[in-house]
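Reviewer 2 asked us to include a model.

Predict the structure of this chain.
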Amino acid sequence: MAVKWTKKDLLGLEGLSADEIGLILETADSFKEISQRPIKKVPTLRGQTVVLFFFEPSTRTRTSFELAAKRMSADIVNIQTNASSLTKGETLKDTAKNIEAMKVNIIIMRHSASGAPQLLAESVSPSIINAGDGSHEHPTQGLLDMFTIKEHKKKIAGLNVSIIGDIAHSRVARSNIWGLTKLGAKVTVCGPATLMPPEIEKLGVKVTYDIKEAIEGADVINMLRIQLERQGQSLFPSIREYAMKFGLDAEKMKYAKKDVLIMHPGPINRGVEITPEVADGPYSVILEQVTNGIAVRMAVLYLVSGVKERIE
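Predicted model (structure tokens):
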């Protein structure tokens, strides 16, 4: 691929070209093999310092980024925001400036406020990687989803991908929509009307409120978690009713294609958005998404670092 990575940061997929997304996926492919070695380590980021700056709870994303950095021999610093100077009244920008003064190379940030990583990227010289900001974007999740799809389907262009669930509060949905449509997929979003953002059709997606319609003809079904912590109010009558209407179960799977892929960004609310027999069934690639997340994040760290060292 002729395209070169020229960006300091990875803040979202909205601002990337199809070629840049393709470059990340191609780079991730070369890194995946490292995680299958007996000694899962390369010297690519030796001497680089990576800071994990998470303002929200995270298990998968934080662990995945930490493993990715360690497998590339980077030095890692975890900042516990509940024990940092931010609790003493220091601004986010001032805290970041102090981190910058310690000569770190990359800051991986998760924050509840949409746009927080952008603010940091404009304020400090280290590369900023967005690990999820508010309801805006979660670019590495979108990338690992596309990587997993491409592994199974050998392409993304022309595929029908349905994203089902809490679209309004989902940064995963937005990153997937931006990435998939740029690479030529046809995206359908489905969920309760109260969990559907206004004018989302402008992002180039089809909208349906009928899960059967979303399932029929889909090559990939990506089920989203209900973001109860972001809603602030009840936007549907009950969890039970939501599961009946929009949860993916064996009965609804009868409408699916025989080679459909079932995805979920995790954590799964079993029995709500997806039943155990579907989550653990033959169509599910949920654990593969977790595995692929490390390779994708290694690729992102490598590209934003600007390191020219060959992958060994």
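The chain has a mean pLDDT of 92. The first helix runs from residue 18 to 32. We have added this to the supplementary material.
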